[in-house]
Design goal:
78% helix; mainly alpha; 6 helices
């Protein structure tokens, strides 16, 4: 309550509006990559996922699962061309959004590293942060390469089939 008293009601409303603007902007970005699902469904799914991730004890994983459920459930549960949204489409849509969010966080981490470099007595933070950036970049590159390999597999190869495994190894 002390924090709320410091910023006042107008500051609290400004905080809510700024978070609303961020989520709407991220909804626009998500819509640009998934044209078949409505903007409102994607934006509200993002709100639900973020709220669940902030409130649930198993945070991020629970938020992601609830975000997928929010993408696929509700009324109307259809894409813009009238087709129902399947569970796999909901998972894929959320993976696109989460991947984009991680790339954005990587950019902020790099900016933080650049700000630290010129500061006195910040040397002890620079190397762990740089190592973290490298590990996150390697993880994202591996995810991208695996996704690109899966796109080149024939559609008959299910995601968990032996044929799909061989296709990824090639």
């Amino acid at each position: 309550m002390a924090s709320l008293a410091k910023i006042g009601l107008s500051g609290f409303i400004l905080l809510i509006l700024s978070q609303l603007a961020v989520n709407v902007l991220l909804g626009v970005a998500w819509k640009s990559s998934i044209a078949s699902i409505s903007f409102l469904r994607l934006t509200f799914s993002r709100f639900v996922r973020d709220a669940a991730a902030a409130c649930l004890p198993f945070s991020q994983l629970g938020g992601m699962l609830i975000g997928i459920r929010a993408t696929t459930a509700g009324h109307p549960r259809h894409t813009t061309d009238g087709q129902p949204i399947s569970w796999t489409e909901g998972v894929a849509a959320n993976i696109v959004d989460i991947t984009t969010e991680v790339l954005g966080q990587l950019a902020f981490i790099i900016i933080a590293l650049l700000c630290l470099v010129g500061q006195a007595d910040a040397g002890r933070f620079v190397w762990p942060l740089a190592i973290g950036i490298v590990l996150l970049s390697v993880g994202m590159a591996g995810f991208h390469l695996d996704t690109a390999a899966q796109r080149q597999c024939p559609p008959s190869a299910g995601p968990f089939s032996f044929q799909a495994h061989l296709c990824r190894l090639a």
